[in-house]
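Re-run requested by the PI after the first attempt was lost when the workstation crashed. Everything re-entered from the original request form. Ligand of interest: flavin mononucleotide.
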Amino acid sequence: MPPSGVPLQEADAHGTALFQPYKARDVVARNRVVIAPMQQYSAVDGHATDWHVAHLGRFALGGAGIVFVESTAVEARGRNAHGDTGLWKDSQIEPLRRVAKVLKDNGAVPAIQLGHTGRKGALQAPWAGHSHLNADDAARGEAAWQVVGPSALPVGDGGWQVPHALSTAEVKELVKAWGEAAHRAAQAGFEMLEVHGAHGYLIHQFLSPVANVRTDEYGGSIKNRHRFALEVAEAVRAQWPAHLPLFWRISLADLDHELSMDELVDLLMGLKARGVDVIDCSSGGGISNYPTDGPRVARGLEYRANDGQRIKAMTGMDVMAVGLIIDPHLAEAILKAGQADLIAIGREALFNPNWAVHAQMSLGANPDYALWPRQHGSYLAKRAGMADPLRNTVLQRDASRMLASTPGVTA
Ligand SMILES: Cc1cc2nc3c(=O)[nH]c(=O)nc-3n(C[C@H](O)[C@H](O)[C@H](O)COP(=O)(O)O)c2cc1C
């Protein structure tokens, strides 16, 4: 039993889909609520800090089934900003092991995303402007570095660096770096791993006919543009234990532009053949240079959930939905409609780290606080007869009465 007393597998889902356990390979999550990877810009030389323990730990205490550590760079050049977490050297394992342990001890499956930003790196933290690192940043010890990409093409105007176009040999080295980082993630105790193949970062850049104009085996035809992604999947799977599930994040926004569903499914089937289990269907885009002259497609959630459902049907793979899923009833409806197997929550979890346990109450599952840490749950269960915990209306009726009987105060 973990210290919080929360069972790893919460059996009593009260008929909800969201609180059914989820199993992939040998790993069981207590429910379908996933905390999406979210960069914190708070690492030191790629090493996770106390911030990551506290920030991620509260989602485990808040009842989520799976908690993802942010995009963690497979090499130093692949960071978005200096404060990104990394797994490019062994010293970065130990601080992440602490994070994984806290998540696991508190009932969540410890999960991590690996990433490489390619030509979209060398930026400031969001609170410092999120612009390109400049001379002032260099003066305080955060110099820009030479970013890399499939071709020497910047993201666009506005100060974006011209990336160093990776040689064929350098691409192959980088594929190895993905595998090595996956090995370190397993050593740190993570049980689910996601490859960031979306949001205009390196893998996405190789897939893109706009960012990738290479003439070697990694560019040109769609088969060649898929090659880097498929080799990364192979390298990661070779290092990532066979009993642990592998996720892959894609950008559904590509479907608004050049990419057909058939081409996307072709890539996904290649990933499946290489041992990818779950497709994380991000709504986010990021290849800013896709031609955007065509008709814009509405970005409502339903449209994305329908895409997820098609991907599920066409690939037979599990799908995770993400993007502005705030209402537990919507999450429940997506799962019940078979549009996804998992629901990832991002910003709403920053707003409310207890999203999962609150969702559970809203859906009427386990009203007895079973999913809450026992240090909190028993007190809350006793209080339940006195207050409506969801609306925070503590003894509103009694409070009104008290105010009414207090001289000089009107309720
Ligand atoms: C602070 C922050 C950091 C993020 N960092 C990452 C990241 O490291 N990797 C990634 O794939 N997406 C990242 N995202 C995107 C989220 O994973 C998620 O897909 C997005 O926020 C949409 O979900 P939401 O509407 O529930 O927030 C980040 C989002 C936020 C708000």
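Saved to the shared folder this time. The CA atoms of residues 42 and 83 lie 5 Å apart.
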